[in-house]
Amino acid sequence: MPPVAERSLDVRADFPILARRFGERKLVYLDSAATAQKPAVVIEAVADYLRNHNANVHRGVYALAREADAAYDGARVRVAAFTGAEVDTTIFTKNVTEAINLVAYSWGRANLRAGDAVLITQMEHHANIVPWQVLCRERQATLRYLEVDERGELSLQQLEDELARGDVRLVAFTHISNVLGTINPVQEMTARVRAAGAVSLIDGAQAVPHMPVDVPSIGADFYAWTGHKALGPTGIGVLHGRREILEAMPPFLTGGDMISSVDFQSATWNELPAKFEAGTPMVAEAVGLGVAVDYLSELGMERLRAHERALAAHMLERLPQVPGLRVVGPPEAERRGGLASFTLDGIHPHDVAELADRGGVCIRAGHHCAQPLMRCLGVGATARASVGVYNEPEDIDALVDALISGREVFGLR
Ligand SMILES: Cc1ncc(COP(=O)(O)O)c(C=O)c1O
């Protein structure tokens, strides 16, 4: 078989789950924003690690333990290379939620004082809201929000105005909204945050799997993402941090592996990244993520983005052909990731997802862990279709067909 890069982006055969059938219907998976399906190489790498190389890491001196060390440390090298980040400042966490909590607990509790402010946006996932709410309440700091305009975008002017107030210590924002699909101007935002002397954190959960992301050129102090949306296993996430900030931060969790030495009353901390990885880490999961990012690199992230942008354009064209359907977020495919949230007049989003399922199409319905944004949009929930590298235009057509015939079930013409 030729290497992935020489093939067209017809990779469905690489994903065993896509061969599944539900009765007569093939699986049409349009829920990659929730979690991505896994290519066989990832599944096999995890199984091979557990079957042939499993040992605890950074402890054993025997040959098998050295293999486990090499597998885990090698995964970090692959993951750091994928986003252009430094190896030592690439920390493995359980998921992006834990990565953001790490920053909120460690950086936040060491640096935020009464009267300070944290600035986030109305389009954040709960993972990038609740840790800041808890932190601000504890430190008597204020939590403020950048607004989302009617196009589903943020205003750089409002960011500047907020920073000019002089009390903002940290600005946290998503790279791509998991509801609106909006791609935020992250470089322009981090530059302004840095110029104001504040710290920036980007939630890259919906970006890293879908477009080229070079962490150093984005210029964020923290950049976090999650492995299971990037074709990797669940239980593994990534926090990239600026070295001097990470070095000055106290540990988040404490215990084995993150120490340099322990006395009866006190301990000293290990070097980066171990300082932030207490206890036995997610070794098999890291190995799987390392293989997943190599698979993505081989496909080529520019190519993958072009494929998904074309699918986004197809969604924006086809979905509104369903009578009563309204897509939220920017109207242009180039300004958004490969997802579309929508409402359908007269049918609750959960029923919309159920109708899609009758046509064999998996989509998500609900508040997408973004309840404040739902309030801004004036809805309780939306339905959401989201694509991955393995989708094709026919998958979106299948959704549109299912929705059009579904409307008839509801007596809508
Ligand atoms: C933008 C965004 N941030 C954070 C998360 C949380 O990801 P995880 O549950 O893997 O921590 C998600 C997942 O849906 C997301 O879309």
Give structural notes.
Helix content is 38%, strand content 16%. Helix 1 packs antiparallel against helix 9, helix 2 crosses helix 9 and helix 11 crosses helix 13. The protein contains 13 helices and 17 strands. The N terminus is likely disordered. The N and C termini lie far apart (49 Å). The strands form five sheets. Strands 4-10-9-8-7-5-6 form a seven-stranded mixed beta sheet, with helices on both faces. The longest helix is centred in the N-terminal third of the chain and has 20 residues. Strand 1 and strand 2 form a beta hairpin. With 413 residues, the chain is α/β, with parallel strands linked by helices. The radius of gyration is 22 Å and the shape is globular. The structure holds pyridoxal-5'-phosphate (PLP).
Strand count, sense and barrel status of the largest sheet are: 7 strands, mixed
Strand content: 15-25%
**Spatial strand arrangement across the major sheet:** 4-10-9-8-7-5-6
Averaged pLDDT, please? 96
